[in-house]
Amino acid sequence: MKKIEYAEILINDKIADDIYSMTLFSPFIAKEAKAGQFVEVYTGLGEHILPRPISISEIDSQNGKITLVYQIVGKGTEYFSKCPIGDLIKIMGPCGNGFEIKKNAKKHILVGGGIGIPPLVQLCRDIKGKAVVFLGAKSNPVLTDKFRKLGAEVYIASDDGSIGFKGNVVELMKEIKPEGDMVYSCGPKIMLKFLAQWAKENNIPVQVSMEERMACGIGACVGCAVKIRKKGESDWQNLKVCKDGPVFMGDEVMWDE
Amino acid sequence: MSNINTEVNICGVVMKNPVTTASGTFGSGREFSEFVDLNKLGAVTVKGVASEPWKGNNAPRIAEVYGGMLNSVGLQNPGAEYFINNDIPFLRQFDTKIIVNICGHSIEEYCKAAEMLSDSDVDLFELNISCPNVSQGGITFGTVPSMAEKVVSEVKKHCKKPLIVKLTPNVTDITEIARAAVSGGADGLSLINTLLGMKIDIKRRKPVLFNKVGGFSGPAVKPVAVRMVYQVCKAVDVPVIGMGGISNYEDAIEFIMAGATAVAVGTANFNNPFATAEVVEGIEKYMIENSIKDLSEIRGIID
Ligand SMILES: Cc1cc2nc3c(=O)[nH]c(=O)nc-3n(C[C@H](O)[C@H](O)[C@H](O)COP(=O)(O)OP(=O)(O)OC[C@H]3O[C@@H](n4cnc5c(N)ncnc54)[C@H](O)[C@@H]3O)c2cc1C
Ligand code: FES
């Protein structure tokens, strides 16, 4: 079940260069959502007709709140950054499938890159077993303290070496050699591709959260295609990131097509 | 309420109100039924269906542009058999008409799809002649009058439902194509399909769409659509479903005044999933406020 809510903006703070954290009062979505799902956020700018998909970073179902962490990359996200506290913003959700937490797993590996880190916060909170978290960014990964507070073992990488390991998260993982029963990830496509390769070599299943340009966000327009070859099937198909995803199994994504 | 009549007759099929959906923007109604009571709509026009499944184009398939969007979905669809087994039973739970949009890469493919769907429980066909004709080097069927007439007359032989032909606006003279479709046997026309457009990402120095070009739709195209509906309604004598940028009831009334019998809401569904139902309610309100008993009183009133 999805709904449109006019959510009150409770917090809209800058947490890093060009990155904001927005907490909304959105009781229906907070009640229904799970980690890895996203909401469609409408811009309210007449000439921009399409909603913007933004992952849900944290869910507080008891108090009816959700938190979105977004980066300014264009007109829509710039508009969000200027929305004052107390205003209502139109959102639809929860959209997409979300992560599937592997039951009875002893150890989970979470891997986030750049603006792909936010949805892993709620996942880390929902995970029962032990979590090892790898976070990377160009220079300074966001939200690292959130994972530490949740008791996870956290490893940091930055491309320019300004913090933690110098290089990307997958290179860091090759050094640390983490063990686990499931990998969960969100980040740039190139990172997810190398991670899927790492996971295959290490024989660990990996869930990847993908991005694609969307129109409807609910599975009706087929605008958001990703090429998937299901296990045991010889032919591939274009699945919908907004409905069949955004989370797919890494070994089913056709990375080079 | 009781003294207004919102019913319209499209090629012998009575719709309880003039509002339907633009093919491709509403799927088969399933997803939008979480937001809209499909019983409220005059008809649901489903996404394009071909005789066999089509995989569609590579992503990115969507680009937002000022006042609208481009799409290059490439008519991805799971094929007629899937549609018949899954989507028709779903839609038949509702009190609304079903318009099935048919696509093909060749006359044979169009005819095969029409044949497969003819015995199914749908009310109307909408023939999408904006597909490339593979045997003619990919020229769009609907841009050449003789080709448009030919595909319509061939499909007509294979279909047992009233046939609406959907026109592409990417032509020099829309009335010429409209006449060709009618002389091929079209029972009605729908227009406009999307305008061919392009967007370039100046940072990456590349087109946003993988396919480079795509169909432009949304509020920005509405004046073009109203003009074409107006011209076509003057040129031919069959009922017309008007569409192109309709976001609210005022837009819908414009199309009706231009001569359209029914109207379709398309891209607006992405901005407002309630758009179709709101247009229905808006038309009713407009009729009451303006003492209009039947839409025929305002249909085509522009000289
Ligand atoms: C499932 C999903 C979850 C996401 N979660 C987050 C998140 O938690 N935080 C965050 O900062 N960003 C997230 N994104 C990316 C975010 O949707 C885009 O950054 C945003 O749409 C850009 O809008 P804009 O108007 O600022 O940019 P513009 O470039 O002006 O947007 C133009 C059009 O392109 C689309 N677009 C641009 N970039 C992207 C992109 N990367 N992915 C999909 N559509 C895009 C826009 O939606 C819009 O339709 C997510 C994307 C997806 C698909
Ligand atoms: S955005 Fe419409 S199907 Fe995914």
Task: Walk me through what this model shows.
The complex is a heterodimer of chains A (257) and B (303). With 257 residues, chain A is α/β, with parallel strands linked by helices. Chain A folds into two domains: 3-95, Elongation Factor Tu (Ef-tu), domain 3 (Beta Barrel), CATH 2.40.30; 107-211, 3-Layer(aba) Sandwich (Rossmann fold), CATH 3.40.50.80. Chain A has helices at 27-32, 75-82, 118-126, 144-149, 169-176, 189-201, and strands spanning 3-16, 19-25, 38-41, 52-60, 65-71, 88-95, 107-113, 130-137, 153-158, 165-166, 182-186, 206-209, 225-228, 237-240, 247-249. In chain A, the strands form three sheets. Chain A has a seven-stranded mixed β-sheet with strand order 10-9-8-7-11-12-15, with helices on both faces. In chain A, a hairpin with a 4-residue loop joins strand 4 (52-60) and strand 5. The radius of gyration of chain B is 18 Å and the shape is globular. In chain B, the strands form five sheets. Chain B has an eight-stranded parallel β-sheet, with helices on one face. Chain B has a four-stranded antiparallel β-sheet with strand order 5-6-16-13, with no helix packed on it. Chain B has eight helices and 18 strands. Chain B has a single domain (8-56, 74-196, 217-297), classed as TIM Barrel. Chain B is 30% helix and 21% strand. Classes of the chains: A alpha/beta (257), B alpha/beta (303). Chains A and B meet through strand 13 of A and strand 5, strand 6 and helix 7 of B. Flavin-adenine dinucleotide binds next to strand 4, strand 5 and helix 2 of chain A.
Give the structure's gist in a few sentences.
The complex is a heterodimer of chains A (257) and B (303). Chain A is of the alpha/beta class.
Topology:
The complex is a heterodimer of chains A (257) and B (303).
Chain A: E1 3-16, E2 19-25, H1 27-32, E3 38-41, E4 52-60, E5 65-71, H2 75-82, E6 88-95, E7 107-113, H3 118-126, E8 130-137, H4 144-149, E9 153-158, E10 165-166, H5 169-176, E11 182-186, H6 189-201, E12 206-209, E13 225-228, E14 237-240, E15 247-249
Parallel strand pairs in A: 7-8, 7-11, 8-9, 9-10, 11-12
Antiparallel strand pairs in A: 1-2, 1-6, 2-5, 3-4, 3-6, 4-5, 12-15, 13-14
Chain B: E1 8-10, E2 13-15, E3 19-21, E4 43-45, E5 62-65, E6 68-71, H1 80-91, E7 97-102, H2 107-118, E8 124-128, E9 132-133, E10 139-140, H3 145-158, E11 163-166, H4 174-184, E12 188-191, E13 195-198, E14 200-201, E15 206-207, E16 213-217, H5 222-235, E17 240-243, H6 249-258, E18 262-265, H7 268-271, H8 275-289
Parallel strand pairs in B: 3-18, 4-7, 7-8, 8-11, 11-12, 12-17, 17-18
Antiparallel strand pairs in B: 1-2, 5-6, 6-16, 9-10, 13-16, 14-15
Helix pairs in contact in B: 2-3, 3-4, 4-5, 5-6, 6-8
The structure holds flavin-adenine dinucleotide and FE2/S2 (inorganic) cluster (FES).
Residues 38, 50, 52-55, 69-71, 73-77, 115, 118, 211-214, 246 of chain A line the site of flavin-adenine dinucleotide.
